[in-house]
Design goal:
This protein is mainly beta and 54 residues long. The chain has 1 helix and 3 strands. The protein binds zinc ion (2 copies). The site of one zinc ion has 5 residues, from strand 1. The site of one zinc ion (ZN) has 8 residues, from loops.
């Protein structure tokens, strides 16, 4: 899989192009997706990231 963009809010949002989360029930709705380059669809490099603050 080439680079893709995933939501880290837990909704499972995935896009092949930059954008924002489209899931209205997601904590990160309308927030930018995070670029990921994984090849196993686990998005480990993104999902293990922790954001500063709350
Ligand atoms: Zn989301
Ligand atoms: Zn990924």
């Amino acid at each position: 899989m080439d680079s893709h963009y995933v939501c880290t809010g837990g909704c499972g949002g995935l896009s092949n192009t930059p954008g924002t989360c489209q899931a209205e029930t997601c904590p990160k709705h309308d927030q930018p997706l995070t670029e990921c380059h994984c090849e196993d669809t686990q998005h480990t490099e993104v999902m293990t990231q922790t954001e500063a603050g709350e």
